[in-house]
Amino acid sequence: MATQLEHPYTLAYVQFHCSYLRLWLRQPELVRMHAVQVLHLVQQYDFPIWKALGTCLLGMADAQLGRPDEGLAPRMPTWRTGSTRRTTLREASAQE
User: Fold this and answer.
1) Secondary structure percentages of the chain, helix, strand, coil, to 5
2) What CATH number has the domain bearing residue 72?
3) What distance in Å separates the CA atoms of residue 55 and residue 15, rounded to the nearest whole number?
4) What is the residue range of 77's domain?
5) What pTM does this model have?
6) Which of 2, 6, 11, 31 is the most exposed place for a label (fewest CB within 10 A)?
7) Which long-range contacts (CB under 8 A, 24 or more apart) does 54-57 make?
8) What percent of the chain has pLDDT over 90?
9) Is 23's pLDDT higher than 70?
């Protein structure tokens, strides 16, 4: 219905909740698919909340698909080790 109404905010809302449901159902491929759709809408329209939530879900999906460094680390604030290079999620976890 959101597609028929051509209402992008509602479409982002629907895609986010579809992604979130798939997260609970442990279907990371579908989580990723819906999260990417949310982020495509965010590129066209300025929806900060959907950008944040879509980014989180995309990161969780990538992590569940066995790519934790690709999934979460690039989307989180930069951790520093005292140098200017970016620290990976594994390295940051090991430091704690």
Assistant:
1) 70, 0, 25
2) 1.25.40
3) 13
4) 2-95
5) 0.70
6) 6
7) 54/12, 54/15, 54/16, 54/19, 57/16, 57/19, 57/20, 57/23, 57/31
8) 50
9) yes
